[in-house]
Each structure stands twice: as structure tokens, then as C-alpha cells.
Write a structure and sequence with these properties.
alpha+beta; disordered N terminus; about 45% helix; 15 strands; six-stranded mixed beta sheet
Length: about 625
């Protein structure tokens, strides 16, 4: 199924109509095409709310760095739902992934899934995990359930903790707004998106046996960092069939392997990949305990179809993509081998770029299949592009290159699906994988990503500046006060301090007082330079820095000369000089510290300016 510009516009208007004035946030993005494979089922509306017993909602909670696009979604089952989960294999998995794994090890049923967009809560340490616990506790309190009945998903910038104040304030409002209408489910689908250009949802109805019908639905997000095991993506899938926990988890694991593990956009595996499946059991009929039964097989086939539809929507919406690439592999020794070859083809950067360049390059397809790790005879290879045979029996054929290129151009014009078929023998194995082309636009940072990065740098600079100024203000004031006290003591009790006594016969008492006050002024102006540092106050802090530098140089010369005279006259042993050597050095240390601190505070500013400039240039382009 293809989505033309007109269809996208229609979906855009539908999204607008579904957005309620009572729900905070913008939901104004189009929906992805419905790409559920054909089968003995019927596509229906409602996505996660289509099965019995489920409610959903999405809203803007203030988690995004910019704009008011919805960023918080909640899916609730009216009763305990049998739960299954499939998670990223990335060892740097995010805090919510760790949390969900632990919950699903303790229990087989849950009630709710909370999803936030804006911050990934990955690489956030123990505090990130505590934020996940707090999110689950808040959701449970708002719904009147226990924390172990709540699962979590997060997406956004890696290394950023969730904005907990915003989340905690929004969860009760989100829970109060839950509904079972298609519009409610749509808002949830929009709320989980990040760089996605479209929302992704699907639902179907299937008859398991005469008179017994069940429903399945799902929402997903993903656009970049998509690669098998698993793709960078989040999904929540709902069902109303009564299924035993062990059977449901087996079905869900196998369906995920045939869908989300078979897509790739850029070869990156995310820290947050999560697919959660809930079944309420509220449809009629006895519990399915055997996945191998006729009803179990029909349910698993329908579940696989929903997950494949969502997975294909993610690949279709790959960052910068102009087409969806679908590769079917036949004749493999088994299905696993076929899937491996298919993933290798759609994951090849050379295949992707050839498709974007409308180049029917069969050699790149053959090479990608060949390095998949599956052993087969070259003589058995057959490659098709659309309905055109490019290679057979391991040899290239004469084909209409102009027509083949036109096929690729036509698919790109309608953002359609480029079909490839690779046969590698006569075995029973068959498999499918999906990807997208690699265009110029993939290399451009998404506007939201740029805003997030700029906001992160600005926050980092503000925090570093404030912390430094706090320490410098207290430290600089303390040093200045010490010099002032030293000057007062010299004025009242001349030559009584150990570091003044050596200079009794060398310099006038008043000169020492003036020198100590000069050192205090040096420390004060050095501190003022750091406190005044900023782009709008550059003349002020530069003037302060020049003044204190000049004064420190004068202080150094004054005390160095005095110490030299003491040494030359033999009135002070060399081993005791350490008591007075700090006199010429202290003001210079104050200035040097101020220079180093200002330099450190200024390190982020050039990078921030470059990023803002490049962002402006990208917008102009």
C-alpha cells in the first residue's frame, strides 16, 4: 500500500481533527501507510484501543526541548494483561529497559505502559534507574495499581535524564484523560515519536475458529538508528485473546524475530529498543495454552502480521528515505539462513545508495548476499528487481537498464516499495527483510536533534558557569579579606607578622600596608573578572582582567625586589625564604587562576556558536 502526497495530506487533516482542545499538545503529523501483509484477517481502526479492555492517551508534558508536540503516552488495560517483552541487545541498555526486564522476571501480568519522548534515560547511571522507579510509582499512584503493574519505555537524547518534574506533574492528567476511542489511540501514537515524520499504528481482526474473533493492535516509533537485534524503536502491541503466559511470550518472541529484527535503516542498534505485548484475554473462548494448536498458529500469524506492518512502517519512514526496500530470499537451507541473507542485502550501504541513485546494480545485491555468512552455490543465484530478472544461474542477464532505472525512479516518486527477490538454491527456507535507501538527507541532523543538542550545550555551559562563579566568589573574597587583614595588622602592629618582619630595615612600613592592599585589590578584580564573564559583558571582564594583571605584575616586582635586598644583605637565611616567597607569587596566582577559569568557561561557547551557525545554514538550504 502506498501513500501519495494527497494521502499524506488527508492523514495530516485526520491527525488535526483527532487532537482535542482538552488534551494539551500538538498532534499535527500525518500517519504512516498501513503495511500489514495480506492474509486471513481484516484491517480495522483503533490501533492499541481496538482490542477489548484497552485505553490510551497522549499529551504534551513539557519533556521536549522545543515546541509543544505531544511527548507522553499511556496505555492501560482494564484488567491484568498477560505481558511479554523483547529488548535491545545493546550492553549500554537504558534504565527503563533494565527496569522492564526486572519486572517481567517477577510477574507475568501488568496493567499499564508509560512512554516518554525527549530523553532516552540511557547512560544516566543509578539516578536514571531511580527516575524509572519514580516514573513507575507515579503512574501506579495515578491509576490505583501497584508499581510492578507498570512498564516503561523512553526515547530521545542519550545521556539525558527524564525531566522528572514535568513527568510527575503530567502523569495524573494523562491518566485522567484515558479513553478507548481511535482518537485517543492516535494521540498516543503521535506522543511516542521523535525524529519520525509520521506516526505508526496498525490493527486487525482475525477469526481463530468459527465464531471466535480476536483483535490485535499496535503503535510504534522509529526512524533512525534502526538495525536488527533490535531496531532502534519502541512499540506497544495489544491483543484481547486469552493466552497462557508461556504461550504468549513464545509467540511474541518469534513474531518479533520475523518483524522488528528484520528491519534496518542505518546499521545502528539503540540503547532503548523495546517491544511490549499485552493481551487482556477479554475476547470470547477458552485460553490458548498451546502455540502449536490451530488457534495458536492463527493468532501467531496475525500477531506477526501486525508487527511486520509496524516494522515496515518504521523502515518506510527511515531518516531521509525515499523508498521502502523489501527483500525476499528463497531456496535457503532454512528460514534463519534466508533471513540472514535478506538482512544482509537491505543493510548494505552500497545497495541502499544504488537504490537512491536509481541504479539497478545487481552486483551490489549479489555481493551483499554473498557476505551474509550463509553458504550456497553461485550457480544457484537468481536476482529479481520488481518483475525483472537481472541474474540467473549465477550469471548476469541482458535486461532493460532504462526500464529498471525507471522502476526505481517511479517508486521514489511515490515513496513506494522497491521489491527485490534473491533465490540461492532449492531449499525450503524463505525469509524477508526491510530497509530503505540512503539519501543525502540522512546526513542532516533533524531539527529537533539540533535543538536538543544546542539546549544541552547551553544547559551545560550555564551549570558550569554558575558552579564556577559560586566557588570563585567565595574563594576570591576570602583571599582579598586575608590581604586586608594583613595590611591592617601591619598598620597597627608594624613588623609583628612573621612574613613582614624580614623587611623591617628594607622598606617603609606604609609601603607594606599599600602592597598588601594592592594584593587585595588584585584578588578582588581577578574575582570580579570571573564573575562578570559572559558574552554580553566582555568589555567589563576584559577591563578587570587587564587591571588586575597589571597590578599583579607591579606586586611581583615590588616583593621580588624586597626579597632580593634581604638576601643580599644576609639578614634572612635562605632556608627561611619559603615564609615570604608567596608574597610576590600570590597576586600572580590569583590572576592566573582567573585566566584559566575564564578560558575553561569559554570552551563550550565556540562549539555552541558553530552548531548554531550550521543549524542556520541547514535551515537556509
Amino acid at each position: 500500500m502506498l501513500v501519495t502526497s494527497a494521502a499524506k495530506s488527508t492523514a495530516h487533516r485526520v491527525g488535526r481533527q483527532m487532537a482535542s482542545s482538552a488534551i494539551p499538545g500538538s498532534f499535527d503529523i500525518p500517519a504512516a501507510p498501513v503495511l500489514i501483509p495480506s492474509g486471513p484477517w481484516k484491517e480495522i481502526e483503533g490501533c492499541v484501543c481496538a482490542p477489548k479492555g484497552f485505553k490510551a492517551q497522549g499529551m504534551y508534558g513539557g519533556l521536549r526541548a522545543k515546541g509543544d508536540k505531544a511527548d507522553l503516552a499511556l496505555i492501560l488495560c482494564e484488567k491484568d494483561a498477560v505481558a511479554a517483552g523483547v529488548f535491545t541487545l545493546n550492553v549500554m541498555c537504558a534504565a527503563p529497559v533494565t527496569y522492564c526486564k526486572e519486572v517481567l522476571e517477577r510477574t507475568t501480568t501488568v496493567r499499564a505502559v508509560l512512554v516518554n519522548a525527549g530523553q532516552a534515560n540511557a547512560a544516566t547511571g543509578e539516578q536514571g534507574y531511580q527516575d524509572s522507579l519514580a516514573s513507575a510509582n507515579a503512574t501506579a499512584a495515578a491509576l490505583g495499581i501497584t508499581p510492578d503493574q507498570v512498564l516503561l519505555e523512553s526515547t530521545g537524547v542519550i545521556g539525558r535524564r527524564i525531566k522528572m518534574d514535568a513527568l510527575l506533574a503530567s502523569v495524573p492528567k494523562l491518566a485522567a484523560a484515558l479513553g478507548s476511542a481511535a482518537a485517543d489511540a492516535h494521540r498516543a501514537a503521535v506522543a511516542i515519536t521523535t525524529t519520525d515524520l509520521v506516526s505508526k499504528s496498525a490493527a486487525l481482526e482475525v477469526e481463530l475458529s468459527p465464531g471466535r474473533t480476536v483483535r490485535l493492535g499496535g503503535i510504534a516509533k522509529g526512524s533512525g538508528m534502526i538495525h536488527p537485534n533490535m531496531a532502534t524503536m519502541l512499540a506497544v502491541v495489544t491483543c484481547d485473546a486469552p493466552v497462557a503466559p508461556e504461550a504468549w511470550r513464545g509467540m511474541f518472541r518469534r513474531a518479533s524475530a520475523s518483524s522488528f529484527n528484520q528491519i534496518t535503516v542505518d546499521g545502528d542498534t539503540s540503547t532503548n529498543d523495546t517491544v511490549i505485548g499485552l493481551t487482556s484475554g477479554m475476547a470470547n473462548g477458552p485460553e490458548i495454552t498451546d502455540a502449536g494448536s490451530s488457534e495458536g498458529q492463527r493468532l501467531e500469524a496475525a500477531l506477526t502480521a501486525v508487527l511486520q506492518g509496524l516494522a515496515k512502517s518504521i523502515a518506510w519512514d527511515g531518516e531521509g528515505a525515499t523508498v521502502l526496500i523489501e527483500c525476499e530470499v528463497l531456496g535457503a537451507p532454512d528460514d534463519d539462513a534466508a533471513n540472514k541473507v535478506a538482512k544482509s542485502v537491505v543493510g548494505s550501504s552500497l545497495v541502499k545508495s544504488a537504490v537512491f541513485g536509481h541504479d539497478p546494480n545487481w552486483g551490489r545485491i549479489a555481493a551483499a548476499a554473498g557476505y551474509s555468512g550463509v553458504h550456497y552455490s553461485q550457480a544457484d543465484v537468481k536476482i529479481m528487481l520488481g518483475d525483472m530478472v537481472l541474474m540467473e544461474n549465477g550469471q548476469p542477464l541482458e535486461f532493460d537498464a532504462v526500464a529498471a532505472s525507471a522502476y526505481l525512479k517511479g517508486k521514489a516518486a511515490e515513496h513506494g516499495t522497491v521489491n527485490m527477490q534473491v533465490s540461492i538454491g532449492n531449499g525450503p527456507g524463505k525469509g524477508m527483510a526491510w530497509g530503505c535507501d540512503l539519501s543525502y538527507d540522512y546526513n542532516l541532523l533533524d531539527d529537533q536533534e539540533q535543538e536538543d543538542l544546542i539546549a544541552s550545550l547551553q544547559q551545560q555551559l550555564a551549570q558550569q558557569t554558575q558552579k564556577t562563579k559560586t566557588y570563585v566568589g567565595g574563594g576570591g573574597a576570602s583571599v582579598a579579606v586575608l590581604f586586608i587583614l594583613s595590611a591592617l595588622y601591619q598598620a597597627i602592629y608594624p613588623w609583628q607578622l612573621p612574613h613582614h618582619a624580614p623587611f623591617r630595615d628594607i622598606i617603609h612600613p606604609a609601603s607594606v600596608v599599600i602592597a598588601e592592599l594592592g594584593a587585595a585589590i588584585t584578588a578582588g578584580y581577578a574575582t570580579a573578572a570571573v564573575l562578570a564573564f559572559g558574552p554580553r559583558s566582555e568589555p567589563v571582564w576584559r577591563r578587570n582582567l587587564v587591571f588586575c594583571t597589571t597590578l599583579a605584575l607591579f606586586m611581583f616586582c615590588f616583593w621580588a625586589t624586597a626579597i632580593y635586598k634581604v638576601v643580599m644583605q644576609g639578614k634572612w637565611p635562605l632556608r627561611a625564604l619559603w615564609r615570604v616567597l608567596w608574597k610576590p607569587l600570590a597576586p600572580s596566582f590569583c590572576v592566573a587562576a582567573a585566566v584559566l577559569l575564564i578560558d575553561g568557561l569559554g570552551e563550550i561557547r565556540p562549539e555552541l556558536a558553530k552548531l548554531q551557525a550550521s543549524k542556520y545554514q541547514l535551515k537556509k538550504a
